[in-house]
Amino acid sequence: MPNVQWLYPAIRKSALGIAALLALLAPFAASAQISLSTAVELAEKSSPGVRSAVANVQRATAALAETKDAYIPNFVLGVGPGYAYGFPLGYPSFFNANSTSLVLSWSQRDYIRAAHAALNSANLNLKDAQQQVALDVSLDYVELNHDLAEIAALDEEKAFAGSLVSIEEDRVLAGVDPRVDQLQAELTAAEIDEKRIHLQNDADEMRQKLAHLTGLPAEGLTTIGSSIPAAPALSPNEAQGGTQSNPGVSAAYANARSKSYIAYGDEKQNYRPLGIFGAQYSLFEKTPGYTQYFHGFQYNNVEFGVQLTFPFFDATRRAKARESAADAAEAQAKADQSRDTVSEQSLLARRTILELQAEQRVAQIQSELAQEQLKTIDAELTSGPGSPTAQPVAPTAAEKAHIDERERYEDLLDTNFSLMKVELNLLRMTGQITDWVSSSLK
Questions:
Q1: How far is Cα 144 from Cα 415, in angstroms, rounded to an integer?
Q2: Closest CA to 138 of 210, 201, 212, 31
Q3: Angle of helix 36-46 relative to helix 179-214, nearest 10 degrees?
Q4: pLDDT tens digits for 201-221?
Q5: Is the CA virtual torsion 118, 120, 123, 127 positive or negative?
Q6: Is residue 197 predicted with pLDDT exceeding 90?
Q7: pTM of the prediction?
Q8: Is position 77 within any domain?
Q9: Which domain holds residue 130?
């Protein structure tokens, strides 16, 4: 067997180097903390909806160029070598160059306007897609942040509940408290465990959703609470705010204008002249037979001119105009429907915010009240009840007060989250969600 002892130092050094590298990378692999704005930026880059909207903008840009370039003469080259026998069946062209362009059209200006409106609609749809991604990421991000905050509060509550169960066990064994008090403490602890499991499952689900949206690994994904901006003040009386600045509604109306311009253009295709410029150069060849039938044969031949057509009657074009008018009417109706839907949803969201703000105020007062009661009990445990005739505070009172304070705090977190969800949806309706996300960077 060969001596391989000389390999051991190298292997040992490599192993130590790999171990050190893994130790350095372990914190990053175990936890990935990301801000809200970064999450939205990553999601917009990987979103299929945004990529599709970008492609639509590129297509609309090309379509606009196509309508404008109709006035630019094209240039086409052709080569046609061949052999003729008998009477020539065509021109003896060996090489030719052709150029055509639109000169006169009453409809083309409308088609250019339609292309402009279609490009505007595509840009608005792109903005709408970006805002939808911002909303999806924001909702998942805010929910994950809420879950993590409530899990932390539940862990503190669990510690107090465990202490309460231990105290009740001792008091039941000493015959001070009945068995029902111990069971009640155990029930409180079990309910905390149940709620924590539910929140942990929800947090894992939010991590998975954010991972799919951003392309980041879901394992260890955490939020930065300070990166979540406060919701801007929105007046409850601005019922039409969502329809005026909603990019989806604006895109629908831009699409309706584009359809209307197309309908105008198709209507003008009837009873109006159309002018097309044309030019051609041909290099003829002396194949057998041509010189026998064509006198005055020459190699170079050029022709150019303008062709004018007057469509006095064309049933196909008239039917096309009616079809385009119907498309325009349909697009206008859909835009109106979209406007009304967003207006109704916006008004409902504003009214819901008023209700949730009232609930938030109640939860805030209840949380502050629980904190004050906890301070009072802690003071009595430290300094006594303050009156010789007052009953001393039971050992379980402090743990129950701590549990109640944490429960009121968790209720406040739930109310804040419910309010935030409605506010984010309203920001989406009013076209302000991306501005809200960007405000965290200021």
A1: 15
A2: 210
A3: 50
A4: 999 999 999 999 999 999 989
A5: negative
A6: yes
A7: 0.81
A8: no
A9: 34-71+106-272+311-437
